Amino acid sequence: MIRKLLATVSRLGWVRKAAMSTPLLRGLAWRFVAGESQEEGLEAARRLNARGLRATLNFIGTHVRRQPEAIAAADTAVRCLERIHAAGLEAHLSMKLTQIGLDLDPGLCRRELERVLETAHALGNFIRVDMEESPYTGETLAIFQEALARHPDTVGIVLQSYLRRTRADLERMVALGARIRLVKGGYWESGEVAFRRKAEVDQAFLGDLEYLLRNGRRPAIATHDPAAVDRALQVAEQLGLAKDDLEFQMLYGVREDLAESLVRRGYRVRSYVPYGSHWYEYVLGCVRKDPGQVLQVRKAS
Ligand code: FDA
Question: Is residue 67 included in any domain, yes or no?
Answer without folding.
Answer: yes
